[in-house]
Amino acid sequence: MKLLDLPLELLLIILCCCDVSSVMSASQTNKILHDLASSHIMWISLVEDLRHRGFVDRLSAADVRAMPTLDLVAVVRRLVLGPAAWSPAQSSAERPSRSASHVKLRPAMSPGHPFSQQDVVVLPRGEHVLLNNSRGLECWRVTDGVLVWRYESDRVQAFAADVQDGGESANLVICIGGAPPNHQGVRIVNLNFSTGVAQPLLQTDFVGGTFYLVDPVTPRIFGDFAAVRLQSQSFVVFDWRSQAYCKVGESASHRIALDFIPGHFIATSHERIEVYSMAALAGRWVLAEGPVDLDETKTVALGRHISPVIADSVRPKAREYPTVVVAVQPSPLVHRTFRVWIFLHPTRPQFPGCRGKGRQDDDEPVHLSCFRLGLGPDRAPAALVGAGESKPAPPLQLHRLKTFRTPREVRCITYAGHTLATTDRDHQWAISRATLTPSGSWESVGLVKLKRRPHIAPVVTTYSGAVAYVARRSLIVQYFE
Ligand SMILES: *[C@@H]1O[C@H](CO)[C@@H](O)[C@H](O)[C@H]1NC(C)=O
Ligand SMILES: *[C@@H]1O[C@H](CO)[C@@H](O)[C@H](O)[C@H]1NC(C)=O
Predict the structure, then answer these.
(1) How many CB atoms within 10 Å of residue 463?
(2) CA distances (Å), 281 to each of 85, 243, 276, 311, 335, in order?
(3) Which residues does the UniProt record annotate as the domain F-box (predicted)?
(4) DSSP labels, 342-365
């Protein structure tokens, strides 16, 4: 049976399982698919899916259903390009953007408590903010300014979150700092946003005489897995569902950064980017029962004990960069496709997780690379392949898009390349963009200055451009139109 022999309703259901890019391609093949792909119901489905997956914040399901088709298309466009205020035509490099709104939250902050860039994070979907306050890690709801939950501890060294269940809850990894012995550890919890209750998923205390957790710890959490960087240039990876952990690292002594994508982890040094299957760690997990002595745990050497599925060079034969940071952003247009941004910092800057001002000398450029990583379809839809036919897993694709040298201190990059960067003159923070066009280079397009000198947190969504920071003892979440 051919695809087009299917009844229209079935074709629509199939299209509704596709991503924006497939729907656009289908619409160019013939009139029937073109009409279905341009229909209002199709675009509601596409935008609702993007909203459910956390790409679109500040829009309810009802908002989406009430939007005309052209506005729905504009939502998708904005996910790629960012708010209009971030485009060069709309803003001036010199004035703060007028087309911005903000929400002010009022957590009790001790006077003189120092905040760093890593202390405030807006979670994907833009509904909640995590704040590392003097009394512990706090979760605030943006819409009504309510404190949802607090983890009491003055030793929260780093944290990360993975929003679950279409925004109902989040899994958090919390790194507890402190002096050895017995004072460091990792907590993984599931926080239900509506009840404000956190269920413990995994709790590990590190024993031994070593400071395992030294900034930047750069924790990551995704699905069943979390990872925390150790001082010894290795990572400890946790599988909370199996209550197990595994230490991975490189034999060479240079730094690596690690992040997860479905079924895989990405390990990046200043020389190479490598993608490993999580399945490669089978048989290497250790049960996390009781306190863990990481000095006694065998390290799984990347590239030696296990081999990457795919790899590329980041900066071959280059000098050693002491700081490597990786930011992995899923594509809003193509399912199971990511942009991997890799920052190589020539000095040990105040980044990330370090306190203080941070200053990058202009003759010491930051090296920034961007790769596209495609996992291929999970499995081809049965209707397209034919019943009973099973295909082997498609290969991963890793493709270098661009390399930049940027003379600024940059951080927090979105899918489209929007960053927060310091401006040359006064070291204020502003939104800039690394353009990926063939002639593109590091360009400060759409430079939007923030109103105050803030303690910065990531730009979370390209959609609302939410940026959170602490200023004058308030927690401010700023949005752009
Ligand atoms: C959280 O706050 C504590 C106490 O002020 C501080 O020592 C720690 O470095 C902070 N953690 C992060 C991630 O900034
Ligand atoms: C959060 O709690 C509410 C109320 O108990 C419950 O209905 C909901 O299923 C919970 N959500 C998750 C994701 O556990």
Answers:
(1) 27
(2) 45, 14, 9, 17, 25
(3) 1-46
(4) EEEESS--S-SS--S-----TTSP
DSSP secondary-structure letter at 132? E
List the single range of 32-46, 149-163, 296-310, 440-454 with lowest mean pLDDT.
440-454
Q: Which atom of ligand 1 is nearest to the CA of 116?
A: 14
**Spacing, Cα 241 to ligand 2 middle (Å):** 19
Contact status, residue 191 vs residue 167, Cβ threshold 8 Å = no
Nearest to residue 171, comparing CAs of 110, 205, 133, 222? 222
Express the helix, strand and coil content of the chain in percent, nearest 5 each.
Answer: 15, 40, 45
Residue 230, pLDDT score:
87
Percent share of the chain, pLDDT over 70: 80
58: left (phi over 0), alpha (psi -120 to 50) or beta: left
Centre of ligand 2 to C-alpha 123, Å, is: 18
Structure tokens at 11: 């074709």
> Which of 149, 191, 195, when mutated, tests ligand 2's pocket best, judged by the most ligand atoms within 8 Å of its CB?
195
